[in-house]
Amino acid sequence: MAEIAIRSIVKTFTDRTRGREITALDTVSLNIGDHDFVCLLGPSGCGKSTLLNMIAGFEAPSSGRIEVGGTLVEKPGADRGVVFQQPTLMPWLTVADNVAFHLKLKGVGRTERRARAQHFIDLVGLTGFEGHYPSELSGGMNQRVGIARALLMNPRVILMDEPFAALDAQTKLEMQEELVAIWQRIRCTIVFVTHSVDEALVLGNRIAVMTRRPGRIRDYFDFDMPRPRDITSPAFNDAKRRVLALIREEAGSSRKAA
Amino acid sequence: MQTASERLPAARYAAAWRLWSKLERVVVPALILAGWEAFSRSGALPQSLLPPPSAVLHALGDWVLGLDGSTQDYSGTWFRHALSSSWRVFAGFVIAGLSGILIGTAIGWSRSAEKTLEPTLQMLRPVPPVSWIPLAIIWFGIADKPAIFLVFLGAFFPTLMNTIHGVKTIDRNLIRAGAMMGASGRQLLVHIVVPAALPSIFAGLRIAIGSAWMLTVTAEMVAVKSGVGYVLWDSYYFLRYDMVIAAMVSIGLLGYLSDLAIKRLMGVVLRWQRTTTVQGREG
Predict the structure, then answer these.
(1) ipTM of this predicted complex?
(2) Which residues form the signal peptide (chain B) (predicted)?
């Protein structure tokens, strides 16, 4: 059974200033299996973040349904951890308190909160920064806090919305490697939104290529290249060429249509 | 061998610069006071109409410490009056602060609270608090209560407006993050919305404490028989302009101290913000 079942999702927005209906997503269906690492790859404005927000329960589809673990998604919940594009930490809480925020909401005592937060702080490599405030840390470190915060909830799935887009190239590579290592260790299901072909191919074991607006699934394929993946290897380049060809073909057809 | 002063003109500049940076803050007030003293003693105006700073200081000294009884009935009564005024400010400010934060959060957070409460409050807001004085006297008599009521009116609206603003401008993704972690509506309010609005709330409280002093003094001039504002108005009747100015200085001092207290509290509550500026300065 699919862990995440996306069934014929349509999302339309009303452009109030022009009085027009805009279709952001057009009949998107996708099955995501347990322990999959799925990358949603598409250009800006293709609705990939909207789709992720609907899995998270932040937005409602205009029609269609999304199920996670067999349950219809109606609102946000701790069974779906989200890592945002910006770290979106509580600036008034320390690293440890941010990571343990979910436990605080559940009324777990301070000692246990500390202990469980520590485990995930160590896991993302922030040992020693427990007492720091987000404003004292770099963007990459804050994004690690965001990941630790999502992992601590032990969610069925983790949804990531271009979490490394704002990081410098070197930090990005490090974070990608660590994310893969974490995923291999705890075998959670990850849906990762990105516009970077390289990033999708480094991370995912399944890749969904989306079209420009209105967003549709252009192709959805397995990518079983062994890890760690060498981005300069012929196998990687072959895959990249195939994906780029898909994207180019799609761009050409939409230009003709326009 | 050179002597130290020959060798290091730069060191002497540095010493002069250090001296200047210590004096920097006091130069302008000192010049104003000196000019005032000189003008007042020059006889351009009768000294009783514009008492020199030395006379004000003399009156203030006797008012505070009861030195020579030169302020007659008021000699040595400063603390009693200052305490009366401070109590009214404190009581009105606390009531206004709590209710302003509470109602402001409700209006900022809930559409229906906004629709039911905001129009009424926005109509009351432009009514100057001092115009409530007649009704305040009729309702509360001549004592602490009308003053506290006026202070409340003056401090409530700045707190309210800033709380509404703080709650409305909160980053929507913080709410999403909270909902993602399983927060209920009430938990979102307590753990995310109010903390996120605190910087704005404190900005409101600092405006509010200024209004609070303004209205305490006004109320004391009209409707109360104690406090620094009462002494100010009473001294005016007795042509003691040195006492009038001494009272003005006292109000300035008390207002400054209460603002300082709020700033201190803000530094503790918003210490997560302070780290931002410290790092920003270093980096």
Answers:
(1) 0.90
(2) none
